[in-house]
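2 proteins. here.
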Amino acid sequence: MTLEEIADFIGINCQEKKEITGLNTLLDSNENQLTFLENKKYLSDLKNTKAAAVLVTSENASEVPNGTIALICDEPYLNLAKISKLFAPNVVEMDGEKPLIGGGTKVMPNVYIGKDSVVGSDCTIMAGVFIGDNVKIGNNTIIYPNVTIYRDCVVGNDCIIHAGTVIGSDGFGFANTKDGKYIKIYQNGNVTIGNDVEIGANCAIDRAVFKSTIIEDGARLDNLVHIAHNCKIGRGSILTGQVGLAGSTILNAYVVMGGQSATAGHLEIAPFTTIAARGGVTKSITEPKKSWAGFPLFEHKQWLKLQGKISNLLK
């Protein structure tokens, strides 16, 4: 769409005919993409953006760099939500190539594989599996019954995905109007899963708003794990039952999270960190190879001492 058409859609006056191909973050946008600034803490990112245009308030418009067009509005985030619908892909493609199935792959009855999708060799796809359009699945991967893989997602080689798991469902993204109405932010990214990954039963891995939710090689997810949009799970990480990660969490390599532990969004956990069961991570962890527990989070040894002192109070 042209920038003029997009601006008209949200009621902003703009005469620019420049073609916009998609939406992205401030730092990841290219000269054909639209971005936004809502929070002042990202002003430094605004100054370095390469975007064609940015949704921005009048207060911050002077910070927009040369070569980027300022679309001035009162609520940039809300307007981004409205615009995201314009760039959302079709839910189901009616046109396209039939799926390609590699040699030695076994596909059981009652399986749907969408247009332009590719399944590698020596895979096993069990009954009730739904694989959407433009999905790529590597070699020697096993997908158990009733797994759903939404469009545009990627699964690597030698993976195991257990029954009932959903990969690529929409991330939980909404913007509020002033009267409290929720406007959906369409999740136009995907999920990318590396090689040698095992995902337990009834997990939910959300697609990214932009770009990808990523699970790197060798990761292991237990049953009932939830990964929110734009998270990154480092290689060899282990997430046990009922772990939940809020959006844009980054786990570096070989992080271990115990059952029912969770993170707040937009934080990063150092390599070889262990979070004990029911631990609540609210801030980034920068020092590697440490164990943590509790909520609020303590180093594990300190948490054990605290529990001992509390226990003594009851004697």
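next one coming up
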Amino acid sequence: MFDDWKFDFGLDLAIPPGRLPLLWCLISFLLTFLVTRTIVRYIRHNADNDTPPKWWQPRNIGHGTVHIHHAIIGVILVMVSGVTMVTLAVDGGVPEFTVAAIVFGMGAALVLDEFALILHLQDVYWSEDGRTSVDAVFAAVAVAGLLILGFNPLSFFDIDIWREDQTLLARATVVGIALLTLALAVVVLLKGKVWTGLVGMFITPLLIIGAIRVSRPHAPWARWRYTNRPRRMHRSLERERRLRRPVVSAKLWLQHVIAGEPHFPDDHEVEAQLDREVHPAPAPAAGTTEAA
């Protein structure tokens, strides 16, 4: 009975062979990140245990006062996989690149898991600043996911007119579109919309929307354009606080889960995070030229 039913929605979910290394890189990245966080939480939970760990139990790597962070291992894996990919660049096949990509994903996960430590040059793994590592991982996963789905940040050089029409006018048109796209991305970033700018490099309409909409209140654009326009700054603050509330709540919950303390953030925690994130930009320093 059910054998005669066919469901065809016109969707091709097959991954092209050329994207298989990237897919396995993302899988190894996610698995390594989750396993690393689990091991670190286990070590932290048993830090006060005086019983010597058994040979199979995870423990910190180091000798005496020297502690080897797992970012060091990640850097080594990234370097090894990078050299391997360069070596295979001409004659390598998909299986070889897939193995190298898996190693690269593992190394990248170990490095980004301690991105906050590298950024601040101090061990802030479990502090508020340590959440920067989680943000870095989110960004990496988003970019890899878009690439796997076939989005290309340089797609304006891959359109038919660039390949089929080699006249000066056609090439100039494509280059002009590329420069316009980059200009929109710069405006969006100056307005403080990092995620819109990041994803917009793959999906251009998001850049147009981000460039037109009001700036975030703490961004350079607001500092240049809104400090003498209190109504616009107030509108930016109100909009930011309203739209950021569910995002902050979800972000805090996910960060708690990844950090090993899963619970839903209460209103006080959300408000405190909003107070840290939502604030007007300071006025430009005296003597500086404001943007037009």
